[in-house]
């Protein structure tokens, strides 16, 4: 899980890729639609999509009538892994804050 979370954050360090993830969070889109919405050139969007695909953050699907067209969508698994990691971090801090509160109350 740690590798998947690390890869997710590394890939999303780029603002254009974060925007692509936000856009795909609204629903599947084609590369051209993503490029226009993100204000990126087609070659730049192609590079970003290749990176997101390699990191397994997104999937693509060929359009049956035109094999040149692909529709991109978010994969659920990386989001679940990141949420699980965030839950662990939150649980740790809740525990630490609870112990600190107990210590303050006992020393008052």
Report on the structure:
The protein has 108 residues and is an alpha+beta fold. It has one domain (2-107): Orthogonal Bundle (Arc Repressor Mutant, subunit A). It has 5 helices and 3 strands. A 3-stranded antiparallel beta sheet has the order 1-3-2. Helix 1 (2-11) packs across helix 5 (76-107) and helix 3 crosses helix 4. The radius of gyration is 19 Å and the shape is elongated.
Q: What would you say about this model in short?
A:
The protein is 69% helix and 16% strand. By secondary structure, it is of the alpha+beta class. Strand 2 (58-63) and strand 3 (66-74) form a beta hairpin.
How does the SSE layout of this entry go?
Layout: H1 2-11, H2 15-25, E1 29-30, H3 31-38, H4 42-54, E2 58-63, E3 66-74, H5 76-107
Antiparallel strand pairs: 1-3, 2-3
How many strands appear in the DSSP assignment? Answer: 3
Highest-level CATH class: Mainly Alpha
Rg on CA atoms, Å: 19 Å
Q: What is the oligomeric state here? A: single chain
**Structural class computed from helices and strand pairing:** alpha+beta
Q: Which architecture per CATH?
A: Orthogonal Bundle
Query: Could you list the spans in which at least 5 consecutive residues all have pLDDT below 50?
Result: none
Q: What letter string, H or E per element, gives the SSE order? A: HHEHHEEH
Helical percentage: 55-70%
Distance between the termini: 42 Å
Largest sheet: 3 strands, antiparallel
Report strand %.
15-25%
